[in-house]
Amino acid sequence: MSYVVIKCGGSIVDSLPDSFYENLVAIQKEGAWKPVIVHGGGPSITNLLDQIDIPTQFVQGLRVTTNQVLEVVEMALSGSVNKQMVQQIAKAGGKAFGWSGVDGGFLKAKPASNVKALGFVGEIHEVETSYVEQLTNLGLIPVISPISMDVNGQKYNINADVAAASIAQALQARLCFISNISGIYNKNQNIVHEATREEIQDMISEKVIIGGMIPKVLSAIDALEKGVPEVAIVNGLEPNNLQQFLEGKAIGTRLYLGKEGMEYVESNR
Ligand SMILES: Nc1ncnc2c1ncn2[C@@H]1O[C@H](COP(=O)(O)OP(=O)(O)O)[C@@H](O)[C@H]1O
Ligand SMILES: CC(=O)N[C@@H](CCC(=O)OP(=O)(O)O)C(=O)O
């Protein structure tokens, strides 16, 4: 039995059809895969901040996070969005256990190293994988909010793509990003079905990949470099997206380190 980390983006979380959750529960009950959900919720955070007149600022797809913003991020993610997903899974006949990186020190955070002046934005340096093992052994589907804490008890806003990639690395799990687009668009606005690390880097330099797609592809590449066997970005509205991802079917954009890796899906099943 292998883990599959499914990252549900805030762009789609409110629109995921019942069939998405029903398929998820069916995959878990069938027993070949242990699904682990990591969710974002960027739009919910921005809505809450708007309501209290706090401006929103992103740098390279990451939210500039003051103390006040951090509180709102935690309310939105570990509160509303997390419990909404737990509820949807329950309605689909499954049992989900929602928690965040803060709880039990599940995700150990440190300040993000790649982009400066973001405030309390962090990255993960350790994952307590035994929690996932124990919960999944109990037949529960973990639903993880990415907010995390460092050794001194300081909380950090962790981009959900970054958290999902770290968790997938720690579990050596397949990683599926569920978003509101059917994959990565190239400069001609066509979906690319496969992309290598080099192609991704070019698309970032050429500003073809912008905003929230930047942390997604960078963490996807990082995950592949650290041994995650398969990563794809798929649309949450496409039917049977999870099943198709797990079967290695051509869905969304699959990411690879180099051209040679592109044979992986066909040749290793
Ligand atoms: N080259 C690209 N291809 C596809 N989407 C892109 C690209 N560059 C930027 N994006 C944007 O990235 C968004 C997905 O990232 P994000 O909004 O963070 O989604 P999520 O909440 O699902 O993580 C898309 O809706 C799109 O607007
Ligand atoms: C540091 C950082 O950017 N954190 C994200 C966390 C939520 C998230 O990642 O949500 P999506 O999946 O919808 O993008 C944020 O504050 O928006």
UniProtKB/TrEMBL annotation:
It catalyses: N-acetyl-L-glutamate + ATP = N-acetyl-L-glutamyl 5-phosphate + ADP. Keywords: Amino-acid biosynthesis, Arginine biosynthesis, ATP-binding, Cytoplasm, Kinase, Nucleotide-binding, Transferase. Its EC number is 2.7.2.8. It is an enzyme of class 2 (transferase). One of its GO terms (cellular component) is cytoplasm. Pfam families: AA_kinase. It comes from the Bacteria. Substrate binds at G41, G42, R63, N157. The keyword Nucleotide-binding applies. It is found in: Cytoplasm. The record marks K7, K216 as: Transition state stabilizer. GO terms for molecular function: acetylglutamate kinase activity; ATP binding. The keyword Transferase applies. One of its GO terms (biological process) is L-arginine biosynthetic process via ornithine. Pathway: Amino-acid biosynthesis; L-arginine biosynthesis; N(2)-acetyl-L-ornithine from L-glutamate: step 2/4. Residues 3-235 form the Aspartate/glutamate/uridylate kinase domain. Signal peptide: none annotated. Catalyzes the ATP-dependent phosphorylation of N-acetyl-L-glutamate. Belongs to the acetylglutamate kinase family. ArgB subfamily. NCBIfam families: argB. This is Acetylglutamate kinase. It comes from Radiobacillus deserti. The gene is argB.
